[in-house]
Design goal:
The chain is an alpha/beta fold and 110 residues long. The protein is built from 3 helices and 4 strands; from the N terminus they run βαβαβαβ. It has a single domain, classed as 3-Layer(aba) Sandwich (Rossmann fold).
Length: 110
């Protein structure tokens, strides 16, 4: 799997990459603090997963996701944000490969 993360806060970026490295199997992550460098990188590298901050100074993560999907339509996008107002806007770029009706989820209630 080829993954990358764009996050303008270095500590959050480092933590996200560290968590991906702990997955089984580990997922190596290319890290970028800005969208422009990430856009340049994806021109040469296929993308399976993009972990994107939404609120960034150089380019909004939702705009970045749309640009990634133009280049790599099958890429999966996971948005990282602490801002509630962006949650619904993120779905406009269809960040997943499957339709929601074909995805499965195990749930339990207390």
């Amino acid at each position: 799997m080829r993954a990358f993360c764009v996050e303008d806060k270095p500590l959050t970026l480092e933590y996200t990459a560290e968590l991906c490295g702990k997955l089984k199997p580990p997922v190596p992550v290319e890290c970028f603090t800005g969208a422009k460098a990430a856009l340049k990188w994806i021109q040469e590298h296929p993308v399976d997963l993009a972990l994107l901050d939404i609120n960034m100074p150089d380019m909004n993560g939702i705009v970045l996701a749309a640009r990634i999907k133009e280049r790599w339509p099958d890429a999966n996008i996971l948005f990282l944000t602490a801002y509630r107002e962006f949650a619904f806007d993120a779905f406009a770029v269809r960040p997943w490969q499957q339709t929601l009706s074909s995805a499965s989820c195990n749930t339990s209630s207390d």
